[in-house]
Amino acid sequence: MKVFVTGATGFIGSAVVKELIAAGHQVLGLARSEASGQKLKIAGAEVHYGDLTDTESLIAGAQAADGVIHLGFIHDFSRFAEVCAIDRQAIETMGEALIGADKPFVVTSGTGVVAMDGMLTEDIRPMAVMNNPRLGSEQAVDTLAAKGCRVSVVRLPPSVHGEGDKHGFVPILINLAREKGKAAIVNDGKNVWPAVHRLDAARVFRLALEKTASAGTRYHAVSDQGIEMKTIAGAIAARLNVPLVSLAPDQAGEYFTWFTHFASFNNSTSAKTTQEMLGWQPEYPGLMADLEDDVYFPAE
User: Fold this and answer.
1) Are the beta carbons of 256 and 182 closer than 8 angstroms?
2) 172: number of Cβ within 10 Å
3) What dihedral do alpha carbons 186, 192, 198, 202 form, nearest 10°?
4) 12: Cβ contacts below 8 Å, ≥ 6 apart
5) Which residues contact 206 (CB under 8 A, 6 or more apart)?
6) H helices of the chain, where?
7) Which of 148, 151, 273 is nearest to 213 (CA)?
8) Residue from 128, 152, 146 nearest 67 by CA
9) For the whole model, what pTM was predicted?
10) Residue of 30, 29, 14, 133 whose CA lies nearest to 76
11) Distance CA 218, CA 47 (A)
12) What average pLDDT does the chain have?
């Protein structure tokens, strides 16, 4: 099928484009600039110019394709509420254009959108009272599903890792450790992050697109269901040859600043249902293998 992909030149999106083309699909990729368009052409995709705030381009792209994968997101955490609102609007715009068309629409969310103790599973929905701007994206999905849009969600973990990861959560931790001369955990660092390799995540998006499932279905692109933060930070400390320190919650803000919430949240996540529904199994290295290899610390 012909697939309209937003975020098509990003770290994950570029892997999804390759995965789709390798499986025999055509790709129509959203591009904001000539440089992005050239990257898409080199990858073998068709270019559709526009951006996430250009409603006309989003509608045209969705209508020109047989299915849509929405991976685009403005990664500016200094205006997180604003970019989450833009994401919700983009989902609503494309989804409304797809109602009644029986075209698959795969939306990206995060496992961290559901704050809870215990194991997060695909059937769990975020509570409406949660104070998380990202919640709006999943709320938009449920509204569209109720209207007859064939929409599903792929939730990504805090760490989507692999070659080329320059701006994700792991590089943030590494850069902080370099800058501060120490790697830090909050309290005992027993809180966990799930993780997935970008190429394994790309396959989940392709399979979710191809799968006929109930509207509103959630999938978890998760390989490692939970790695303790002290293990992640300890590996970073060892590779940088800096100490690993424990910080009390009231000290963490000085070290982590805006990243404090992410460094301390607990997000154990299962992908059992996703594996069963899609016949998906992770094939690529886990996060700790990438940290211990030269993926994040290339040999000089």
Assistant:
1) no
2) 16
3) -140
4) 71, 156, 160, 198, 201, 202
5) 16, 19, 20, 23, 25
6) 13-22, 34-43, 55-63, 80-98, 135-146, 169-180, 198-210, 229-240, 249-256, 260-264, 272-278, 287-292
7) 151
8) 152
9) 0.96
10) 133
11) 29
12) 95
- 8 Å CB contact between 108 and 70: yes
Residue 114 has which token pair?
């559901």
Counting every residue written for the chain, the total comes to: 300
Our measurement of the distance from residue 68's CA atom to the centroid of its chain's CA atoms, rounded to an integer in Å, reads 16
Residue type (1 letter), 27: V
For 131, other C-beta atoms within 10 Å of its C-beta total: 6
pLDDT of 169-223, one tens digit each? 999 999 999 999 999 999 999 999 999 999 999 999 999 999 999 999 999 999 9
**What is the rounded distance in angstroms from the CA atom of residue 42 to the CA atom of residue 21?**
12
Q: Which of 245, 238, 239, 231 is nearest to 287 (CA)?
A: 231
Element counts in the chain: helices (H) and strands (E) = 12, 12
Task: Reduce the DSSP state of residue 220 to 3 states and report it.
Answer: strand
The confidence score (pLDDT) of residue 129 equals 55
Q: What are the φ/ψ torsions at residue 181 (nearest 5 degrees)? A: 75, 20
d(CA 28, CA 48): 6
The fraction of the chain above a pLDDT of 90, given in percent, is 87
CB-CB contact of 104 with 209 (8 Å): yes
How many Cβ atoms sit within 10 Å of the Cβ of residue 150? Answer: 24
Q: Of 157, 144, 27, whose CA–CA distance to 90 is shortest?
A: 144
Give me 90's structure tokens.
Answer: 């983009």
Secondary structure of residue 72 in the 3-state scheme: coil
CB 140 within 8 A of CB 125: no
